[in-house]
From TrEMBL:
Membrane disposition: Single-pass type II membrane protein
InterPro entries given in the database record: C-type_lectin-like, C-type_lectin-like/link_sf, C-type_lectin/matrix_domain, CTDL_fold, NKR-like_CTLD
SMART domains named among the record's database cross-references: CLECT (SM00034)
Name of the protein described by the UniProt record: C-type lectin domain-containing protein
Species name: Anolis carolinensis (Green anole)
Residues of the C-type lectin domain: 40-146
Subcellular localization, as worded in the UniProt entry: Cell membrane; Secreted
A molecular-function term among this protein's GO annotations: carbohydrate binding
Signal peptide from the UniProt entry: 1-20
Matching PROSITE patterns: C_TYPE_LECTIN_2 (PS50041)
A GO cellular component annotation in the UniProt record: extracellular region
SUPFAM superfamilies membership: C-type lectin-like
Lineage: Eukaryota, Metazoa, Chordata, Craniata, Vertebrata
């Protein structure tokens, strides 16, 4: 089905090019994620090459119109663990004193496909070699940024 749609689009854009319209076909096939980012399930992800605390990782992501990544499913967790390489990486999960854990998008964390082990003073979450863990937010780690795929090409 996808092949048929692509062929129809190619024919339509070829015919319109002859009518004096700009050729939009390259945009259809362009990589929807910026260079150095990976696409997965309609999102673009950046696995940092630098280390910083949770706040600096979040600031870096924000400067690229992104945020620290939300782990919304077991499949996404598996993807991160497969591609993040061995070092730990910050994700977009944080806790203010006396408050519940919240994702960077404002939603409250509820245990489901993973449990977040926490100890007093540990307010930021990261991915280690096998799961999600928590730490103080000043620890130096890599990070994972995330943004919607089609916002990255706009």
């Amino acid at each position: 089905m996808t092949v048929i749609i692509i062929l129809i689009l190619a024919i339509l854009f070829t015919e319109r090019k002859n009518e004096g319209c700009p050729n939009l076909l390259p945009a259809v096939f362009a990589d929807p994620c910026p260079k150095g980012w990976l696409g997965y399930q309609m999102k673009c992800y950046y696995f940092s090459v630098n280390e910083g605390n949770w706040t600096s990782g979040n600031s870096h992501c924000s400067s690229h119109n992104a945020s620290l990544a939300v782990v919304g499913s077991q499949e996404t967790l598996d993807f991160f663990l497969r591609y993040k390489s061995p070092p730990d990486h910050w994700i977009g999960l944080q806790k203010d004193s006396g408050q519940p854990w919240r994702w960077i998008n404002g939603s409250i964390f509820t245990e489901g496909f993973f449990t977040l082990p926490t100890e007093k003073g540990r307010r930021c979450a990261y991915l280690n070699h096998k799961a999600v863990a928590s730490s103080n937010c000043t620890r130096e780690e890599f990070w994972i940024c995330s943004k919607d795929m089609f916002k990255s090409i706009a």
